[in-house]
Design a protein that fits this description.
two-stranded antiparallel sheet; two-stranded antiparallel ribbon; about 425 residues; disordered N terminus; 17 helices; mainly alpha
Length: about 425
């Protein structure tokens, strides 16, 4: 019996179920995109290359202008990323005319930024508030104010609920919070990295850019073996070639960047604007001597090598770790974005950048990389600095500061330092 005869004997409900099953099968097993004609392939590559040059040049210019403009750039990319993702959710349900949907989205974005960037200001630049009573109160009650601002949006959402639209409204409410987590939180962590020194923004970002370019290059000329179904254009040749190219590039760039204090010194407030502090290179940037474990010495001795110690800069090791993450793990941010686009049947998140797509198409791996650098830096590199202690002291009442002064004086006197 043919499939057509079977369908004629089925009920309408079974026909709908069969159609639904076929659609699910099609979605779960996506077919690779047809190969591009050679002419279009070169045209797309040329367009991508032409618009990459001004993007890289503009990024370098903003780095030269200083940390304040870098923070503005990150916030601008965050807002545009948020807009691109929220447009996707709104377009799917635009016919329902949901009340307050867009207003609440932008309200929650503003509240999230107020909370996270307020946290940064109060932890890094507490001396900004010294002598300003109203600013001091804003800093002291920052979290309480942020909580009530969020509650205002929450109450407004509840009041906007309409019968027969509950499921859609709650779905989009959850969607808004996921987008805030992906965009606002991760951009906040990137700015935190920037405050610790532009190196911790520039180096990992350049690793991701290098990996993206070299993976595209190797895949363009040598790619034959598909890497992952979510992104049919990605190949194993591009992935492996990008890895080795990024590791070599990472060694070269790491040896160059740490020589510039403008990149390795943290940010401070000089009374009028954010500036790079005049610091001495920390432990991680200075030459250090490390003892080789006896077990490894025994293995090396089998090959006629006798190393009891090695001398290197810790930043070389940390740079290699970041380069490995940029080439092996960060691309999964792009794969995630590719799966997301396929779920919504999109080619790109936007058309702001010809040859590249939208901001999210360029930032998917950068967001993941920035979060990793923040976690890695605060886990293995960050140490307590005089500036971070001072920011805490500035927020203490005057009497407590005097008590600390006397206690510290007694302690230093007992050690013979005073």
């Amino acid at each position: 019996m043919s499939e057509e005869d079977e369908m004629q004997g089925d009920s309408p409900q079974s026909l709908r179920n069969r159609k639904k099953d076929r659609e699910e099968d099609d979605d779960s097993a996506p077919t690779p995109a047809p190969p591009q004609p050679p002419k279009n392939k070169w045209k797309n590559a040329w367009t991508r290359f032409l618009f990459s040059i001004p993007m890289i040049g503009g990024f370098i210019l903003i780095l030269w202008l200083g940390p304040f403009y870098v923070a503005l750039l990150v916030i601008s990319l965050q807002v545009k990323s948020f807009h691109e993702l929220m447009v996707i959710g709104h377009s799917k349900y635009s016919s329902l005319e949901l009340p307050w949907y867009r207003v609440l989205n932008w309200y929650f974005l503003g509240v999230a930024n107020y909370f996270f960037f307020g946290e940064s200001l109060t932890s890094y630049f507490r001396n900004l508030f010294v002598g300003e009573d109203y600013l001091n109160k804003l800093a002291n009650y920052h979290r309480f104010i942020s909580y009530w601002l969020y509650l205002g949006g929450f109450i407004a959402f509840v009041l906007s609920l309409q019968k027969k639209k509950y499921m859609v409204q709650f779905t989009l409410f959850g969607w808004t919070h996921i987008v805030l987590l992906c965009c606002v939180v991760q951009s906040h962590l990137i700015i935190q990295n920037c405050f610790e020194g532009l190196y911790w923004l520039l180096y990992p970002a350049s690793m991701v850019i290098c990996n993206d370019i070299m993976a595209y290059f190797f895949g363009f000329f040598f790619g034959k073996t598909p890497l992952i179904k979510l992104s049919p254009k990605k190949t194993w040749e591009g992935f492996i070639g990008g890895f080795f190219a990024t590791m070599v590039f990472g060694v070269i760039v790491s040896k160059t960047m740490y020589q510039f204090k403008h990149l390795i010194c943290p940010v401070e407030f000089d009374g009028s604007s954010l500036v790079i502090s005049n610091c001495d290179p920390g432990y991680v940037f200075n030459q250090q001597t490390f003892n080789v474990p006896s077990g490894i010495q025994g293995i090396l001795s089998l090959f006629g090598v006798s190393w009891s110690s090695v001398s290197l800069r810790p930043i070389h090791f940390h740079g290699a770790v970041m380069a490995m993450f940029a080439s092996l793990i960060a691309p999964f941010g792009g794969f995630f974005a590719s799966g997301f686009k396929r779920a919504f049947k999109l080619k790109d998140f936007g058309d702001l950048i010809p040859g590249h797509g939208g901001v999210i198409d360029r930032m998917d791996c950068q967001f993941l990389m920035g979060t990793f650098v923040f976690v890695y830096y605060y886990s293995f590199i960050k140490s307590v600095s005089v500036n971070s202690v001072l920011q805490i002291i500035y927020g203490m009442p005057g009497e407590s500061q005097m008590d600390l002064y006397n206690a510290l004086g007694e302690h230093l006197s007992s050690r013979g330092l005073l």
